[in-house]
Design a protein that fits this description.
- The structure is a single chain.
- With 97 residues, the protein is mainly beta.
- Helices cover 5% and strands 46% of the residues.
- It has 1 helix and 6 strands; from the N terminus they run ββββββα.
- The chain has one helix at 68-72, and strands at 4-5, 10-15, 18-28, 34-41, 46-54, 57-65.
- Strands 1-2-3-4-5-6 form a 6-stranded antiparallel sheet.
- The longest helix has 5 residues, at 68-72.
Amino acid sequence: MGIVFQDTSRVFHNEGGQDVIFEAANQDTTDATYQYFGYISASGSWLVQRFEIIDSVIIYTYFAGQKRTTYDALWNAVTGIYEGALTFTTFDQIKII
């Protein structure tokens, strides 16, 4: 099973036979072209989903990691705006850092 969005606050993922629940943590929709949605799990693993909006088309790309400190450095602590410089890819090509 790939990534499954059950609702807007949780993302369920099964990889290697283990279920991981990601909770919504950050959202940056300040840019008209790129919007970022961050999710973290109880164990500290995380993923960022990027929406690239071209006219009325949305392209979904992702980046994932395992350390909460890395995730926290991607977001401005005061404004909540995404400030990372990740290289996003399709879900099936995610390389976890």
